[in-house]
């Protein structure tokens, strides 16, 4: 009972840390955009977490964890129904590491993250109403169905696909939708002039920096909580690989951007940290420290080239969400099949080779994490996310419209969408 209590407390702490990440996302998005849109960004982020939790209670949790189902879609009913003992108390045999309520709340904190990723990519020119509709549909339906394919015991889980904490299930799910939204929405006014890329600097880099450090802290809960217990060995390893990947991603992103652009770009440094975190998330529990450093380093390099490539395609992503969450999410997922090693064992804990025979050590055991299942997972999530997000956003575009008017964009969404100003005493970066 003491161990159970310890595990459950750790899971609740991790839940709080993942909740705190939403402040990090808000700070990052605010800092990398212009001040005239600050209220709009804050409103979107608050809407995402509040409505996301309610939707996850109503349908999401039971879509994502439907129990026995066909492997593609299942639903075990509306709302929550905690398992009870004959005496009417909460059945603590639900899971050896946490209660039913803790399970719901921890997973619910993940659910809203996908829409938060999209929020940053479409910042400064999307109508608030259509974005809210998109959030309801994507968080309420698409994310939990996609999540059930792996974490709910669906067909990808049966194929051997592995995603420890969500490089694909959370980050790429948001990243694919962000890519579709940016394509359909178009670039901000002034971003591309005469075929040249124009920098639109964010108004508060200190806040953006604080956002990244908050997100890094929150990742202790994101990855550490995904162990689903307070197991000292696995939890501590997970936190070490997470931090090493973040540090490596930041350093190598800074080095690469300095070589390419001849300046010490803090924003690229920050996104490199996030890229390292996203990259390690799929396999944080099965990587060695050196593997984590390599994965983070490659993530950092990828960030620089991805941001540059996205700009060349004339896709306007104010916060670099596509590069960080989609591209590094794909890389991290595939990296599990390259670096990850999880030996096959029988019920007795003995190591098995590919033929199912008992062997003496992990060196002789079969690798349960192979490349092809990881690739299948990436492709499957690309399919569901691209199709679903396109149908939602394209329908909104053709019916109610998704982009604010030119005047509204130039004057700022705060004034037109909300009738408020985050900084009433001064106005900078008007256009």
Give a written overview of the molecule.
The structure is a single chain. The protein is mainly alpha-helical. The chain has a single domain (2-77, 90-418), classed as Ammonium transporter fold (Orthogonal Bundle). The chain is 63% helix and 2% strand. The strands form 2 sheets. A two-stranded antiparallel sheet has the order 1-2. A two-stranded antiparallel ribbon has the order 3-4. Helix 5 runs antiparallel to helix 13, helix 7 packs parallel to helix 13 and helix 8 runs parallel beside helix 10. The chain is globular, with a radius of gyration of 22 Å.
Fold topology:
Elements: H1 2-31, H2 38-64, H3 100-111, H4 113-121, H5 128-148, H6 155-159, H7 167-185, E1 192-193, E2 196-197, H8 205-224, H9 232-261, H10 266-281, H11 289-312, H12 321-339, E3 351-352, E4 358-359, H13 371-399, H14 406-411, H15 413-418
Antiparallel strand pairs: 1-2, 3-4
Helix pairs in contact: 1-2, 1-3, 1-4, 1-8, 2-3, 2-4, 2-5, 4-7, 5-13, 7-12, 7-13, 8-9, 8-10, 9-10, 9-11, 10-11, 10-12, 11-12, 12-13
Features:
mainly alpha, Ammonium transporter fold, 15 helices
| Percent in strands | under 5%
Instruction: Give unreliable regions as ranges.
Output: none
Shape: globular
Distance between the termini: 60 Å
SS content category: mainly alpha
Tell me the total number of β-strands: 4
> What is the level 1 CATH name?
Mainly Alpha
Give the strand line-up of the largest sheet. 1-2
Largest sheet properties: 2 strands, antiparallel
Enumerate how many helices there are, as a single number. 15
Oligomer: single chain
- Rg calculated over all Cα atoms: 22 Å
- The domain count comes to 1
């Amino acid at each position: 009972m003491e161990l159970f209590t310890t595990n459950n407390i750790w899971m609740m702490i991790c839940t709080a840390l993942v909740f705190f990440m939403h402040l990090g996302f808000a700070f990052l998005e605010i800092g990398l955009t212009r001040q005239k849109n600050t209220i709009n960004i804050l409103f979107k982020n608050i809407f995402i977490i509040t409505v996301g939790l309610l939707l996850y209670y109503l349908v999401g949790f039971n879509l994502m964890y439907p129990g026995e189902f066909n492997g593609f879609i299942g639903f075990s009913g509306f709302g929550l129904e905690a398992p009870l003992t004959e005496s009417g108390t909460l059945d603590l045999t639900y899971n050896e590491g946490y209660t039913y309520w803790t399970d719901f709340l921890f997973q619910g904190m993940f659910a809203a993250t996908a829409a938060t990723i999209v929020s940053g990519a479409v910042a400064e020119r999307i109508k608030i109403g259509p974005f809210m509709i998109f959030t309801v549909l994507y968080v309420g339906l698409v994310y939990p169905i996609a999540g059930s394919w792996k974490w709910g015991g669906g067909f990808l889980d049966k194929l051997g696909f592995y995603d420890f904490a969500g490089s694909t299930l959370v980050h790429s799910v948001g990243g694919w939708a962000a890519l579709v939204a940016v394509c359909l929405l178009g670039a901000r006014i002034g971003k591309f002039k005469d075929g040249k890329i124009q920098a639109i600097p964010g108004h508060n880099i200190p806040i953006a920096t604080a956002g990244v450090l908050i997100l890094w802290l929150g990742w202790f809960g994101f990855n550490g909580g995904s162990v689903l217990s307070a197991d000292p060995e696995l939890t501590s390893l997970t936190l070490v690989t997470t931090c090493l990947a973040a540090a490596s991603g930041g350093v190598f992103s800074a080095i690469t951007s300095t070589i390419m652009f001849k300046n010490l770009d803090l924003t690229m440094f920050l996104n490199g940290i996030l890229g390292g975190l996203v990259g390690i998330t799929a396999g944080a529990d099965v990587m060695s420290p050196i593997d984590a450093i390599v994965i983070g380093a490659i993530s950092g390099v990828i960030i620089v080239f991805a941001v540059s490539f996205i700009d060349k395609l004339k896709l306007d992503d104010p916060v670099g969400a596509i590069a960080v969450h989609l591209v590094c999410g794909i890389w991290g997922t595939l990296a599990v099949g390259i670096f990850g090693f999880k030996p096959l064992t029988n019920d007795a804990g003995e190591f098995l080779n590919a033929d199912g025979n008992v062997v003496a050590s992990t060196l002789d055991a079969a690798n349960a994490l192979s490349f092809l299942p990881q690739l299948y997972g990436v492709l499957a999530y690309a399919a569901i996310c691209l199709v679903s997000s396109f149908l939602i956003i394209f329908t909104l575009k053709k019916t109610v419209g998704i982009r604010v008017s030119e005047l509204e964009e130039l004057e700022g969404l705060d004034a037109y969408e909300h009738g408020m100003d985050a900084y009433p005493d001064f106005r900078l970066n008007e256009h």
